[in-house]
Each structure stands twice: as C-alpha cells, then as structure tokens.
Specification:
This protein has helices spanning about 15-25, 50-55, 95-100, 150-155, 225-230, 245-255, 265-275, 315-330, 335-365, and strands spanning about 5-10, 30-35, 45-50, 70-80, 80-90, 110, 115-120, 125-130, 135, 140, 160-175, 190-195, 195-205, 215-220, 280-290, 295, 300, 305. By secondary structure, the protein is of the alpha/beta class. A hairpin with a 4-residue loop joins strand 8 (about 125-130) and strand 9 (about 135). The longest helix has 30 residues, at about 335-365. The structure holds flavin-adenine dinucleotide. Flavin-adenine dinucleotide binds near residues 13, 46, 47, 283 and 302.
C-alpha cells in the first residue's frame, strides 16, 4: 500500500537498521545514511535482545537466533547469595548488527555519509550530507543515537541528554581466562549489589561459541568533577568502543582501589582477569526522554528519542519496538500524518516509562552507603 513512500534514515546502528528492515518489509523505498565508514560487524560487548522482536523483523531467516544465549538463572547478591529463575536473552552487538544488515539489500545502506542538515520545513524533508549532496524524502527517520543532532528538528525545548551521576565501567574478558570451578559463570545473569554500587555480568556468544566472553558492567557513582577528570585523561571512549586502552585501564584501577574487597571472590576474579587480559572502558551514563517523537515528516527513534540507562538492558529492544510500531502505524493508517501522530503518542509514552525505570533503578542502587564484605 505504501510502495511510493521514500524514507531516509539517519544512522545505521541498531535503530536505523531495524527501521530499514521494518519499513522495507511494508514496501517503502529506504535509504540509510551512516557516517561510520564500514559498519559495525565486529563491535564487541553484550546486548539484551528479544528473540520475538527479531522474528518479527526478519524477512525470511532467523539464523541469528542460534547466537542468542538464554541466561536461565539469575544470581543475586544482596547481603547473601540467592538464585532465582530467569530467562534473559543476550547476544553481542556485532552479531545482532550483522544479522540486521543481512536483512537489507547491499545498496540500501550508504556508509561514510554524515548528515549535516535536515530541512523539515517543507512537505518533503530534505537531507544534506557533508559532501553537499541533497536528497528529498517523504519521511526522514532520525536514528542518530544518544547525542542526536536531529533532535532539534523535532523538539523545540532543551533536547540534551543529562548525566545520570554514575559511570558504567564495562569489561570484556575471554571466558577461557576464568577458572569456573564453582560453575557459577555459565548460564547465569550475575547481579551483585553492594552499598551504592552495582555489578552485572553475563556470558556472551561469538559465532563459534555461546560462552565466548564474560561481559560485565560495574555501575559506579561519579560526580561531575571526577567525570571531567576521566574525560581529560582520555579514558572515555564512544559508547560501543571496547578495546584495550591503557588510559582506561589505569583510571579503572584507581577507581577500583577505593572499592577493593567490595565484591565476593568470583566477581573479583572476573575483574582481575579483565585487567590482566581483557578490555575495560568507562561509559558515563546519560538519560533523555523526548516529549514528542515526530514533527512534520521528521521522526525520532531509538536512543535519539529515549536514551535510557543501560541498567534497564532495554535500549536495543526499544529501538526494535520503535521500528515495528512505525511500520504497523503506517500500515494501519491510510494517511501518513495520522500514522505518525499515533506512533509518536504511543512510543513517546513507552520511552518515557523506560527512561524513568532507569532513573529509579539508578537511584535505588545508589540509595545506601557502601559496605565492605567481611
Ligand atoms: C554502555 C552501554 C551499554 C548498553 N547495554 C545495553 C544492553 O545491555 N541491552 C540493550 O538492549 N541495550 C543496551 N544499550 C543500548 C543500545 O546499545 C542502544 O539503545 C541501541 O543500540 C540503539 O541505539 P541507536 O541505534 O538508537 O543509537 P546508536 O547505537 O548510538 O547509533 C546511532 C548511529 O547514528 C550514526 N550517526 C550519528 N550522527 C550521524 C549523522 N549526522 N549522520 C549519519 N550518521 C550518524 C552513528 O554513527 C551511529 O551509528 C547500551 C548502551 C550503552 C551505551
């Protein structure tokens, strides 16, 4: 029904490719403009994922689902260890990105294309890239992430994300580097909460193995001055960059010194082995919830619309849900503007709820004072 709808998507990460998959399935003519030179097939780091959403987005194949690990148990440590049933699906960023990319024709995604300007004042918004090339679309979808420049085309009010008051130190260590004598590391989502700090770890897959690496995160309260120091020291990398970096390792070792012996031995082992042979990077957590997701024919999706704390583990899921909701609204309504209004109303509410959930979880783990284990 919507074969003639020409859609320009700014950003070719999880949100951008999900929208491309969902809209091309309903017959839209889609172009993705991604500033990165070659895509993100090799990005490491874990990502919560919903197999149901992947199936809904997939045109024919669901091969990626072989690479989803289901953590069947959840181990909580809050004073004392205890286990509860869980079914949390995780994969790695690179696997998910490659799978989404494989849904789309080669020519649909243009790499090395930085969008410099979106003119949304006309009935057909115009997108201009830094090489001065302009294209007109029926619809422009801004999937340009947490630092979105496109937001200002949709939101008149202050559209900047705010620092949440803590840093997520992310680590990745080969599973083979861990002594899993107690069998604690496989098949579990490991959650430890001590005082005002929070630790999460889980095994993530590679193409070859379902337990290739332990992906972990340590949420550490950090004030603005300490954050500025981290930035000045060159330790802060872009959110998805997880590579071995001396500045980051040294900053982590300093931050950790104040929290030594906070965690049980098996958490300390994960951290020690990561320092020895893995990668660690600090990611300051920022939050933002858009008050609307559509203006004219410019639409915000994914992190550009709702940047929730990674403690929710739901950013990838939200991006996919945005994509499917946009496609559903377009199919349901004969009129594009009516479809966009429905999409904005529904997804703005969902996004605000997720961001609020992240704020509450962030406040909860910082609510008490640090205690040390005996
Ligand atoms: C530390 C961390 C941990 C996370 N953990 C989880 C998790 O466990 N589970 C989960 O579901 N989610 C998690 N997330 C969130 C998840 O990664 C994102 O929510 C999800 O990938 C959707 O992001 P996005 O595509 O909207 O934005 P991004 O991934 O930020 O992508 C934006 C894209 O737009 C491109 N771009 C930007 N500006 C321009 C421009 N002007 N022109 C062209 N291209 C442009 C960028 O190059 C980038 O590729 C985490 C995020 C972080 C930072």
């Amino acid at each position: 029904m919507r074969r003639s709808l020409r859609v320009g998507i700014v950003g070719g990460s999880i949100a951008g490719l999900s929208v491309a998959a969902a809209l091309s399935r309903i017959g839209a003519d889609v172009v993705v403009l991604e500033r990165g030179p070659a895509g993100f097939a090799t990005r490491r780091g874990g990502l919560g994922v919903s197999p149901q959403l992947c199936r809904a987005l997939a045109a024919t194949q669901d091969g990626m689902l072989r690479h989803v690990v289901h953590q069947q148990r959840r181990l909580w440590i809050r004073g004392a260890e205890h286990e509860e049933a869980a079914n949390i699906a995780v994969t790695s960023y690179g696997i998910l990105w490659r799978w989404l990319r494989a849904q789309l024709p080669e020519s649909m995604v243009e790499f090395g294309q930085t969008v410099a300007l979106i003119d949304g004042q006309t009935a057909r918004p115009r997108v201009t890239t830094t090489d001065a090339r302009s294209q007109d679309f029926d619809l422009v979808v801004a999937a340009d992430g947490g630092g979105s420049e496109a937001r200002r085309h949709v939101l008149a009010d202050d559209a900047h994300a705010a620092f949440a008051g803590y840093v997520l130190w992310r680590g990745l260590v080969p599973f083979a580097a861990l002594d899993d004598r107690t069998g604690i590391y496989g098949g579990r989502l490991l959650i430890a909460n001590r005082g005002d700090q929070h630790f999460v770890g889980y095994a993530i897959p590679s193409d070859e193995s379902c337990c290739a690496a332990m992906n972990w995160g340590w949420y550490l309260p950090t004030d603005e001055a300490a954050l500025a120091e981290l930035r000045a020291g060159g330790a802060v990398r872009p959110p998805h960059q997880l590579e071995r970096c001396t500045d980051a390792l040294e900053a982590f070792v300093r931050a950790r010194a104040a929290s030594r012996e906070l965690w049980p031995g098996w958490v300390e082992q994960i951290i020690d082995r990561t320092i020895a042979c893995g990668t660690i990077a600090p990611h300051p957590v920022y939050e933002f919830a858009a008050s609307a997701m559509v203006r004219g024919r410019v639409v915000l999706v994914g992190n550009a619309a709702h940047l929730a704390s990674p403690i929710t583990g739901s950013g990838g899921r939200m991006a996919m849900e945005d994509a499917l909701a946009l496609a559903d609204a377009l199919v349901e309504h004969g009129d594009v503007d009516a479809a966009l209004a429905q999409f904005s109303q529904c997804r703005t509410r969902e996004g605000a709820a997720l961001v609020e959930q992240g704020r509450q979880r962030g406040a909860a783990f910082r609510a008490t004072t640090p205690r040390r284990t005996a």
